Design the sequence.
C-alpha cells in the first residue's frame, strides 16, 4: 500500500491509455471500477496537494477498515502493517521512489485487520513519472493471499515432517536388519548342530529345539507387529470400530494369557464396570490390552499382583490402566519405548524375550482410534500404563409401529435419562441393522410389529447376542402367562403392558442403566 513518496503536482495524466482528470471525483470513479473484485482492492493517489488515498470497496473486506478510517490514521496504512514487516515495506518503497527507472513494484507482507487477525497480502504498485523521473501518480492492487500462504506453510511443515520420517525409517531399517540377523544366526547354528551331531543327548536336543522354537516364535511376532504397523501407517489396515463391552474384552485377553500368569504365579485383578462400553476395533483393542498385560506379566516377579482397571475418563473417552509392581523402566529407556525408530527390548524377570516393537504398535493403534497413551514408572517399583479409547455412544432403541405409543415412550425416556440418545424405528429389519451398527444400551420392543413380531425380533437379536449383553424391554398390549414365558425364554429383562405405568417403567430403566 501507498507509503510516503513525494509526488509532483500535475493536473492530468494518462491511465491505461486514456486521459483522466486528477480531481477527487474522477479518482473515486476510477476506484469504483474495481468494486466487487474478490479478495482484492484497488487504490490510487494523485499529487502532493491531495494526500487522500482513494480505495475500492474491497478494502473493507480485507482489512475491516473503511477508506475514511484509513485516511484518518496519522501513519495512514503504515498503521495496519504488521510491525515485523513495516521496515521491509518502507525500505522497498524508498528504493522505488529513488530509482527513476522503476515504474512498478511487487511485494508481499502482512497486515493486522480491524478484528486483530493477521492477513497476508500481495501488492502490485504502478507509478507514472514526469520527465525528471519524479512520481506524479500512483496506483496499486492489493490481494489477500492468506489461504495460499497457509497452504505453503502447511506444505513446508509436511515436507519437514516427511524428511524426519525418512530419517527415522533409515535408522529403523538399520536396527531391524541387525535385530533380525542375530536371532536367525543362532537359530541356524543350533539347527546345524542338531543335523551334524548324531550323538547329542536327548536333553541337549530338547534344549536346542526349545531355543529354536522360542526364537522363531519371537521373530514371527516381530514380523506380525511390523506388518500391522505398516498397514496402519499406509491405511491398508482398516479400523472398524464397534460397540464393545469393556469388561468382556479384558477377560478375553486375560484368558489368552493365563498360562503366562500361572507360570509365574502372578495374580491379575480386574476392576472394570459392567456398564462400560467402548467404540473400538475388537481385534486391535485386544492386541493393545494383550500387549500391556503380557509386558506386565513379563516384568513382574513371582507371586506379584497385576491390576487392570477401566472407567469413564470424560464424556467421550474411557480410560484403561494396567499396573504392575515389577522391574519398572529406567530413565534412559523411557523416551524409547513408543518410538519404532529406537526399538529396544529388555528381558523379563525369568529371561523372557520381546520384540521391542509392541508398544510402538500399541501407541499407533490407540492414536488411530483418537485416544492417547502415557505411563508412570520407576525402576524397581513397577509401571502403570494408561490409555484412552472412545466411549460407545449411549443409545436407547425404541421399536414400535404405533406412532403415538412410540412418541410417548420417547417422552418418558427423555424425562428420566437425559444423557442417552434415542433412536426410533417401526421396522424390525431396520432395528436389526441399528443394533448391528451401534449396539444400544437398551432395546424397547413392541410385541405388535409388521413383518416380524416382537418375539421374532427378540429371537433374532439373541442369535447375534448370545451372551445377553443387550438389555431388552418388551411392551405388549396384554400380558398372558404364555407370552411371559415366551419372552423370558428369550432372555427379555422386563415385560410391560400398555398403557405403560410410567413410574415403574422409569424405575426399571434406571436399574438397567445404572
Sequence:
Amino acid at each position: 500500500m501507498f507509503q510516503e513518496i513525494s509526488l509532483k503536482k500535475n493536473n492530468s495524466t494518462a491511465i491505461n491509455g486514456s486521459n483522466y482528470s486528477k480531481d477527487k471525483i474522477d479518482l473515486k470513479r476510477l476506484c469504483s471500477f474495481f468494486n466487487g473484485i474478490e479478495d482484492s482492492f484497488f487504490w490510487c493517489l494523485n499529487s502532493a496537494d491531495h494526500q487522500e488515498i482513494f480505495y475500492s470497496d474491497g478494502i473493507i473486506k480485507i482489512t475491516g477498515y473503511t477508506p475514511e478510517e484509513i485516511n484518518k490514521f496519522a501513519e495512514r496504512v503504515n498503521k495496519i502493517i504488521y510491525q515485523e514487516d513495516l521496515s521491509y515495506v518502507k525500505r522497498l518503497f524508498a528504493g522505488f521512489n529513488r530509482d527513476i527507472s522503476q515504474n512498478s513494484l511487487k511485494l508481499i507482507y502482512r497486515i493486522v485487520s480491524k478484528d486483530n487477525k493477521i492477513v497476508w497480502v500481495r501488492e502490485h504498485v504502478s507509478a507514472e513519472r514526469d520527465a525528471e523521473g519524479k512520481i506524479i501518480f500512483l496506483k496499486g492492487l492489493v490481494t489477500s493471499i492468506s489461504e495460499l500462504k497457509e497452504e505453503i506453510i502447511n506444505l513446508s511443515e509436511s515436507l519437514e515432517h516427511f524428511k524426519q520420517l525418512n530419517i527415522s525409517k533409515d535408522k529403523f531399517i538399520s536396527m531391524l536388519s541387525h535385530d533380525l540377523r542375530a536371532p536367525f544366526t543362532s537359530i541356524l547354528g543350533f539347527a546345524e548342530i542338531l543335523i551334524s551331531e548324531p550323538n547329542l543327548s536327548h536333553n541337549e536336543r530338547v534344549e536346542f529345539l526349545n531355543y529354536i522354537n522360542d526364537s522363531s516364535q519371537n521373530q514371527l511376532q516381530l514380523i506380525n507387529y511390523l506388518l500391522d504397523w505398516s498397514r496402519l501407517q499406509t491405511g491398508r489396515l482398516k479400523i472398524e470400530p464397534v460397540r464393545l463391552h469393556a469388561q468382556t474384552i479384558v477377560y478375553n485377553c486375560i484368558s489368552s494369557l493365563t498360562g503366562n500368569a500361572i507360570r509365574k504365579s502372578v495374580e491379575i485383578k480386574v476392576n472394570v464396570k459392567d456398564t462400560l462400553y467402548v467404540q473400538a476395533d475388537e481385534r486391535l483393542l485386544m492386541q493393545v490390552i494383550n500387549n500391556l498385560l503380557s509386558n506386565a506379566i513379563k516384568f513382574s516377579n513371582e507371586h506379584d499382583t497385576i491390576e487392570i482397571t477401566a472407567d469413564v475418563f470424560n464424556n467421550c473417552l474411557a480410560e484403561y490402566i494396567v499396573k504392575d509392581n515389577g522391574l519398572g523402566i529406567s530413565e534412559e529407556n523411557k523416551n524409547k519405548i513408543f518410538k519404532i525408530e529406537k526399538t529396544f527390548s529388555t528381558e523379563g524377570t525369568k529371561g523372557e524375550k520381546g520384540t521391542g516393537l509392541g508398544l510402538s504398535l500399541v501407541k499407533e493403534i490407540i492414536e488411530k482410534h483418537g485416544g492417547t497413551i502415557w505411563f508412570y514408572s520407576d525402576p524397581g517399583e513397577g509401571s502403570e500404563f494408561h490409555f484412552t479409547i472412545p466411549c460407545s455412544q449411549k443409545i436407547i432403541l425404541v421399536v414400535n409401529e404405533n406412532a403415538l405409543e412410540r412418541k410417548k415412550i420417547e417422552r418418558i425416556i427423555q424425562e428420566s435419562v437425559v444423557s442417552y440418545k434415542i433412536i426410533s424405528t417401526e421396522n424390525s429389519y431396520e432395528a436389526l441393522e441399528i443394533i448391528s451398527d451401534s449396539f444400544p444400551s437398551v432395546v424397547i420392543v413392541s410385541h405388535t410389529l409388521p413383518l416380524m413380531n416382537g418375539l421374532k425380533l427378540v429371537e433374532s437379536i439373541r442369535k447375534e447376542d448370545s451372551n445377553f449383553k443387550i438389555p431388552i424391554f418388551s411392551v405388549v398390549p396384554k400380558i398372558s402367562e404364555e407370552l411371559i414365558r415366551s419372552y423370558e425364554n428369550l432372555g427379555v429383562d422386563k415385560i410391560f403392558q400398555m398403557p405403560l405405568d410410567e413410574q415403574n417403567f422409569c424405575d426399571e430403566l434406571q436399574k438397567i442403566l445404572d
